[in-house]
């Protein structure tokens, strides 16, 4: 992997020579002359791989192999890799204290979920407990991002309705904000709204065949405006020429 070496001042208190930044790998699978593409070193799925890793070797290293849990020290902190000085977790690149706090929180949450699952399913083995807890934690992270974090960033009623419908789905009466007459008109104009629009939870569609991960396609992961029509007619204010987008 290529590295970008950033020069620093001689009196810098933290770095001795240069800051060594790994560069994103170019995509060897494409031959496009129009634009550059690059490869991820880890999964791009919304799958909590920052906690669980992206390969079996990392996953084995972070697990206790008992009751589905992830490794924590006796004081509920992440164990430290003596060769790097960084916590042992799914991904420790670009590490800083804020990232460390989140990793500890979600590792504890995973182990809490394992305890809950074991209590309710005493016959489950380590693998079943681990994989089910992983599924739950990934879903919780996605839910927080969709319903709480993004609505705090985009603090308006339209975005809130769109994000709620993205997760839970939306009914015609919700689209019409409780107005039954408007809801009936919408269903008449847009028959696809008759049974509502399904969201991520309970949606029978399995995008790209991944058990629980949102697709890498931005338009599918960030449907902030799912209530808008698929096509718009746009006219030039100068020539009245019609175009569709």
TrEMBL record:
InterPro entries: Haem_peroxidase_animal, Haem_peroxidase_sf, Haem_peroxidase_sf_animal, Oxylipin_biosynth_metab
Presence of the UniProt keyword Transcription regulation in the record: no
GO molecular function: heme binding; metal ion binding; oxidoreductase activity, acting on single donors with incorporation of molecular oxygen, incorporation of two atoms of oxygen; peroxidase activity
Transmembrane segments: none
Pfam families reported in the protein's UniProt record: An_peroxidase
Keywords of the record: Dioxygenase, Iron, Metal-binding, Oxidoreductase, Plant defense
Any one of the GO BP annotations: fatty acid metabolic process
Protein name as annotated: Alpha-dioxygenase 2
Annotated source species: Mytilus edulis
């Amino acid at each position: 992997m290529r590295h970008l070496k950033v020069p620093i001042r001689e009196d810098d208190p933290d770095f001795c020579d240069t800051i060594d930044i790994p560069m994103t790998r170019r995509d060897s699978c494409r031959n496009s002359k129009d634009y550059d593409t690059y490869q991820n070193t880890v999964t791009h799925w919304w799958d909590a791989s920052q906690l669980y890793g992206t390969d079996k070797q990392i996953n084995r290293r972070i697990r206790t192999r008992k009751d589905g849990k992830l490794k924590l020290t006796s004081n509920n902190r992440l164990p430290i890799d003596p060769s790097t000085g960084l916590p042992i977790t799914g991904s420790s690149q670009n590490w800083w204290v804020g990232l460390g706090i989140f990793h500890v929180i979600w590792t504890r949450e995973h182990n809490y979920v394992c305890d809950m699952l074991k209590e309710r399913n005493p016959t489950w083995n380590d693998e079943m407990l681990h994989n089910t807890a992983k599924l739950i934690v990934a879903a919780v992270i996605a839910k927080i991002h969709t319903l709480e974090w993004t609505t705090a960033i985009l603090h308006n009623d339209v975005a809130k309705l769109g994000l709620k419908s993205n997760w839970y789905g939306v009914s015609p009466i919700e689209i019409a904000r409780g107005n039954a007459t408007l809801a009936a008109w919408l269903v008449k104009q847009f028959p696809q709204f008759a049974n509502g629009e399904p969201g991520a939870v309970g949606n029978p569609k399995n995008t790209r065949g991944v058990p629980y991960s949102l697709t890498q396609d931005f338009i599918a992961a960030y449907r902030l405006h799912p209530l808008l029509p698929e096509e718009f007619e746009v006219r030039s204010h100068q020539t009245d020429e019609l175009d569709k987008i």
